[in-house]
Design a protein that fits this description.
This is NAD(P)-dependent oxidoreductase. One of its GO terms (molecular function) is protein-containing complex binding. InterPro entries: ComplexI_NDUFA9_subunit, DUF2867, NAD(P)-bd_dom, NAD(P)-bd_dom_sf, START-like_dom_sf. This protein is α/β, with parallel strands linked by helices. 37% of the residues lie in helices and 21% in strands. The chain is built from 15 helices and 19 strands. Helix 1 crosses helix 6, helix 5 packs across helix 7 and helix 8 packs across helix 9. The chain is globular, with a radius of gyration of 23 Å. The N and C termini lie far apart (52 Å).
């Protein structure tokens, strides 16, 4: 089949594309910023087109000549997410009808049939309803907690359990949940491409176990080899308060924790298993909870996490200034430029640069970075907890602590775009080049485009600490390279 994937830069989409290719399908992926996909291992095996589901014209071009459209897009970070998701789904539904697509495949959220849904679950249900009522057939898969290395649900479960041997929890930890392994989710998604014509409905998908969140935490502890976790449920912790706690204790920021927890206040158990008639279980069966956790932990320990929840970040607005803009482009630009010669060879300095952040730290004043990271988390930002997927390699578009890898030229240049809460836009550029005497010239540039008075005041306030932070980074990066030489 000819399949077009919306959301290929995200957690699910980034894993679905290679599975579709392995199944023999032709794949086109749609990205607002195609450059973000250039380091994906499957990049040369797919057709990449620029497009945005909020733009009807580009959506129409993206689905032209295709048979199946996968919609794996959610506007979690937007305050008007429901309106954006509604517009995007309407655009795709209309484009699918005009192009004569065989079907749309959408991964939504498992939800109860009665009672008031959380805003995010209600929005995901609405998206599915739009597709089902549209001119093309739709397969709407509805899943609860997805277990896999790098998924937001798994990272929340993992960090809550590992970091808190005893915890006070809300009453929803006793609600029943039917989690599903990412491997089984992908199996169903791939299978949906070849469903018979006329299949236009929702399918509940889940694993073989029905557990409470409390059961999941305790079973996770057993698989991970942790002592028994002690949990005291209390009725006063609202979903909002729970999200604040998750925001502080786990890498999952408040913007994502809120919809995750809001979905857990419902009992989310499959009401039917009709999907098995079209995609039967493999001989070994669907993965049980313990198997999914063990597999995820193995992937993490071996640095084989192919995608993470943080992969799907908002692309830069092309109308906004960028780090490449010259000073005369308009507006104030603050910069901190530093460089240093080192006797270490360029490849050795680059290893330090590409390994920066995460468990290796930022080579300057760790306390200041930690305090700034906690301040960002308290204000609802991403903080430093996202870490990095691989301690030694970086790829365009991936998250690195509170930065996003905007550009990387292996062996030479790394450009990071800040995603922490700031009154402006900021970048950090690190570059390596051979020096005349056989050594290396290391250059470092911090760029800040302020927004309003607050932005100017922010830069003036932190400027006195630049020698300590940025100056220390230059000295310590080159020093680390020399010690490895």
């Amino acid at each position: 089949m000819r399949c077009v994937v919306f959301g290929a830069s995200g957690y699910i989409g980034g894993r679905l594309v290679p599975d579709l290719l392995e199944a023999g399908h032709q794949v086109r992926v749609v990205a607002r910023d195609p450059a973000k996909l250039r380091d994906r291992p499957w990049r040369d095996d797919v057709e990449v087109v620029r497009g945005d589901v909020l733009d009807a014209e580009s959506t129409g071009r993206a689905v032209a000549d295709q048979q199946v459209a996968y919609y794996l897009v959610h506007s979690l970070h937007s305050t008007d997410f429901a309106d954006q998701d509604r517009r995007a789904a309407t655009n795709l539904s209309a484009a699918a009808g005009h192009a004569g697509l065989a079907r749309i495949v959408y991964l939504g959220g498992l939800h109860p049939d009665t009672g008031e849904l959380s805003p995010h679950l209600a929005s995901r249900k609405e998206v599915g309803d739009i597709f089902l009522a549209g001119p093309a057939d739709a397969v709407v898969l509805q899943a609860a907690v997805i277990l896999g290395s790098g998924s937001a649900s798994f990272e929340m479960l993992r960090h809550l359990t590992e970091r808190l041997p005893a915890m006070v929890t809300p009453h929803w930890v006793h609600n029943r949940i039917q989690p599903i392994a990412i491997r089984d989710v992908l199996r169903y998604l791939v299978g949906a491409a070849t469903f018979p014509a006329g299949v236009n409905r929702t399918f509940d998908i889940g694993g073989p176990d029905v557990l409470t969140y409390l059961d999941m935490m305790r079973r996770y502890a057993v698989v991970a080899g942790l002592p028994r976790r002690f949990v005291v449920p209390v009725p006063v912790l609202t979903p909002w308060l729970s999200a604040q706690w998750v925001n502080l204790v786990t890498p999952v920021p408040r913007s994502i924790a809120v919809p995750l927890i809001a979905s857990l206040i419902h009992e989310v158990v499959c009401q039917e298993d009709d999907i098995l008639e079209l995609v039967p279980d493999p001989p070994e069966g669907r993965l049980h909870f313990e198997q999914a956790v063990e597999l995820a932990l193995t992937r993490i320990s071996q640095y084989q996490v192919s995608t993470r929840w943080s992969d799907a970040g908002s692309p830069p607005d092309p109308s906004e200034p960028s780090a490449a803009d010259p000073a005369w482009a308009g507006g104030t630009v603050y910069e901190d430029r530093r460089e240093r010669h080192t006797t270490a060879p360029p490849e050795q300095v680059w290893r330090v640069v590409e390994g920066i952040g995460g468990e290796h730290g930022w080579y300057s004043f760790p306390l200041a970075w930690a305090v700034r990271g906690w301040a960002d988390r308290v204000s609802g930002g991403v903080g430093l907890g996202r870490g990095r997927r691989d301690p030694y390699r970086l790829h365009t578009g991936e998250a690195l602590d509170w930065w996003r890898v905007e550009e990387i030229e292996p062996g030479h240049r790394l450009l990071l775009r800040a995603e922490m809460k700031l009154p402006g836009r900021a970048w950090l550029e690190l570059s390596v080049s051979p020096d005349g005497d056989g050594g290396t010239r290391y250059r470092q540039r911090a760029v800040f485009h302020p927004h309003g008075f607050a932005g100017h005041a922010y830069w003036k306030l932190i400027a006195p600490f630049h020698d300590l932070v940025f100056g220390g980074m230059v000295a310590n990066v080159t020093g680390a390279a020399e010690r490895r030489n």
